[in-house]
Design a protein that fits this description.
InterPro entries: AB_hydrolase_fold (IPR029058), Pept_S9_AS (IPR002471), Pept_S9A_N (IPR023302), Peptidase_S9_cat (IPR001375), Peptidase_S9A (IPR002470), Prolyl_oligopep/macrocyclase (IPR051167). One of its GO terms (molecular function) is serine-type endopeptidase activity. It catalyses: Hydrolysis of Pro-|-Xaa >> Ala-|-Xaa in oligopeptides. Keywords: Hydrolase, Protease, Serine protease. Its EC number is 3.4.21.26. With 685 residues, this protein is an alpha+beta fold. It is built from eleven helices and 39 strands. It has an eight-stranded mixed beta sheet, sandwiched between helices. A hairpin with a 6-residue loop joins strand 28 and strand 29. Helix 6 crosses helix 7. It starts with 14 loop residues before the first strand and ends with a helix. The model has no long low-confidence stretch (mean pLDDT 97).
């Protein structure tokens, strides 16, 4: 097919010399979203996309499968519990309270707040008694959370709006009169390009001016730090943690609030300057439980005395498992023999085991509905014999399951509210070998029939930040497979599927391992007859957008089509935009000569070469994305349109009023349909 001419993009001879190396940047001008030239180019790309993407397919089926709705795990406070649910026709989930007599009331409905659908609910935190609810919302995808507090009984606003609360935890003190939270410094107090950073931990008394908040932590520390804060159920213990950006390590402090005032807590070091992560749970039995990957890359649970919380006092309760990663735990103590439930993922599949709380001895396991993903393992704060968790797999929408430790039974507590006819699919997990001989796992979802392959296939991956790709219900995956395609998800290094060592084998100077694992996954799918290079599409977003950007520049002959969403692609300048400065602990910094070498070595934008027949490529970006600036995709799109030969198109889908994260269902359906339509067209589905 003949390609339409691409919008003109001027090539500049801009070259930076870094550590003695010239680095060309011909499309630097596209970094300015407000320039008339950039706006004109984007209009041209929008016009090209609308003409060149063909009739949209799959939309009604994706929408139908999303009519399953969703449901979240309960948070218990006193006699009440709180949960979220999205019914088949809702654009966003609604947050509810259920009274002790079973009466259910909607507390926060994003569509009631804003019928346009552009407002999202970012976070919620009921107080310890369930009388007040703190919640955070943002508009148009910018994730700039605004904090409010409402009275649960009346629904009336108690306070807010409080701005600059992006990614802020809320740690209530007993009685609901005050809470700790994290807030950025005002932009007037920091350099212009640092307004996204500079967080501090404050104590706020409900109903008072934020001008009177007591700053309790963060002064003089790194501008890219993120802070965690929580208060034990009895109000005695405060814990504060600090992560430098997204680093897989944290510093941790505790304070005894009976021995020092809440607005001037005497924080004592639990760990500082240690290359490991730890989080604390203050048990109702007076013991301190430590969830850590220190000396245990797949994590363990230790116990100690909260009055002496240092590392030298930690004692193993649940030791590291050589094959499974310890994710979560819950304590059930209204039993003759109290137990700890421990949530694991074994090669990306979830399981829960039961252990004696005193000795850690394994005494059983929790029945689960299948081989899938388990999250939000929760108990009642005051203790009990029940736990709740969310379960999903490739064919089952999320449900909440209830486990009763007295009977040992798991029962369905709440299903996703919509009944949908899910297509029959076959799911298998395979092991393949990467370039350096490492064994990597991959989930393959295919039609449940015996028609021999090869078939049009989408290979998906992420490979970063220790995030695990685990089975889950996906309307777009099911739609693709029902139409006769195969969908494969590779558990690449850089993820957390095999613990922290697996993550580190794909970060910083090891990043090429991630791309090698992905190429090897593609080669395995081809060698085993699942697909062919002409039928193989790849897809990834954010760090996964970097992945597919590297894949298409390193091995263009291996892939027929690429969907690259909200990607990082200019790895030489990524730290200067969005939240990039918080990720140099994952990727490295161009300030350091060796790390600059790693980054330039794979930076997709800098590896686009003239006269290569690149795969058909669709960039999908979001104009309000405050994490990954769309300029990455804009510059790469211009470079590929200039360089690519052959008849495979390079298109840009630039969407306004949405960002990197949550969005309304109808917006999600449109994006999925456009992505699948593009991949189907260029893989022959």
């Amino acid at each position: 097919m003949k390609l339409e001419p691409y919008p003109t993009a001027r090539r500049e001879d801009t070259v930076d010399t870094l550590h003695g190396t010239p680095v060309p940047d011909p499309y630097r001008w596209l970094e300015d979203p407000d320039s008339p030239e950039t706006k004109g180019w984007l209009l041209g790309q929008a016009d090209l996309f609308s003409r060149g993407s063909g009739p949209q397919r799959f939309k009604s089926r994706i929408a139908e499968l999303l009519r399953s709705g969703s449901v979240g795990a309960p948070a218990w406070r006193g006699g009440r519990h709180f949960f979220s649910r999205r019914t088949p026709d809702q654009e966003h989930a609604v947050y509810y309270v259920v009274e002790p007599d079973g009466t259910e009331r909607a507390l926060i409905d994003p569509m009631a707040i804003d019928p346009s659908g552009l407002t999202t609910l970012d976070a919620v935190q009921p107080d310890k008694e369930g009388r007040l609810l703190a919640y955070q919302i943002s508009v148009g995808g910018n994730e700039e959370s605004i904090l409010y507090v409402i009275d649960v009984t009346t629904g009336e606003r108690v306070e807010g709006p409080i701005d600059r609360c992006r990614y802020s935890p809320i740690a209530w003190l007993p009685g609901g009169e005050a809470y700790y939270y994290v807030r950025r410094l005002p932009s007037t107090e920091v350099p212009e390009n640092e307004a996204q950073f500079h967080r501090r931990v404050y104590l706020h008394r409900v109903g008072t001016s934020t001008e009177d908040d007591a700053m309790i932590f963060g002064q003089g520390l790194k501008m890219t730090n993120y802070y965690g804060v929580s208060v034990s159920r009895d109000g005695r213990w405060l814990q504060v943690s600090a992560h430098e950006g997204t680093a897989p390590r944290n510093d941790l402090w505790v304070a005894d609030l009976t021995a020092s005032p809440a607005d001037r807590p005497e924080l004592r070091v639990v760990q500082e300057g240690v290359d490991a992560q730890a989080g604390l749970v203050f048990g109702r039995d007076g013991r301190l439980y430590v969830h850590t990957d220190r000396d245990a890359p797949r994590a363990r649970v230790c116990v100690t005395d909260p009055a002496e919380p240092g590392f030298e006092t930690w004692r193993d309760l649940i030791p590291e498992d050589p094959e499974a990663v310890l994710n979560d735990f819950a304590i059930l103590d209204d039993l003759e023999r109290p137990v700890m439930l421990v949530g694991w993922t074994r090669h990306a599949i979830s399981e829960i085991t039961v252990h004696d709380l005193e000795t850690g001895e394994r005494v059983g396991e929790v029945p689960t509905p299948g081989l899938g993903s388990i999250g939000s393992l929760a108990e009642r704060p005051e203790g009990g014999h029940e736990a709740w968790f969310v379960y999903t797999d490739n064919t089952r929408p999320p449900s909440v399951q209830r486990y009763d430790a007295r009977t040992g039974e798991t029962t369905l507590w709440a299903a996703s509210p919509g009944a949908v006819e899910v297509p029959a699919v076959r799911t298998s997990q395979v092991v393949y070998r990467s370039k350096d001989g490492t064994d990597v796992r991959m989930l393959i979802i295919s039609p449940d029939d015996d028609t021999p392959g090869p078939r049009p296939t989408i290979l998906y991956g992420y490979g970063g930040f220790g995030l695990s790709m685990t089975p889950g219900y996906s309307a777009s995956i099911l739609t693709w497979v029902e139409a006769g395609g195969v969908y494969a998800i590779a558990n690449l290094r850089g993820g957390g599927e095999e613990g922290e060592e697996w993550h580190r084998a794909g970060m910083l100077g090891n990043k090429q391992n991630v791309f090698d694992d992905f190429h090897a996954a593609a080669e395995h799918l081809i060698a085993t007859g699942v697909t062919t290079p002409e039928q193989l599409g790849i897809s990834g977003g954010s760090n996964g957008g970097l992945l597919v950007g590297a894949a298409l520049t390193q091995r263009p002959e291996l892939y027929a089509a690429v969907v690259c969403s909200a990607p990082l692609l200019d790895m030489v300048r990524y730290e200067q935009f969005g939240l990039g400065a918080t990720w140099n602990v994952e990727y490295g910094t161009v300030e350091d000569p060796e790390q600059f070498g790693w980054l330039l070595g794979y930076s997709p934008y800098h590896h686009v070469q003239e006269s290569v027949n690149y795969p058909a490529t669709l960039f999908t970006v979001f104009q309000s994305d405050t994490r990954v600036h769309p300029l990455h995709a804009w510059k790469m799109c211009a470079a590929l349109q200039h360089a690519s030969t052959g008849d495979r198109p390079v298109l840009l889908r630039n969407e306004t009023e949405v960002g990197h994260g949550a969005r309304s269902v109808s917006r999600s359906v449109d994006l999925s349909a456009d992505s699948l339509t593009f991949l189907a067209r260029h893989t022959g589905l």
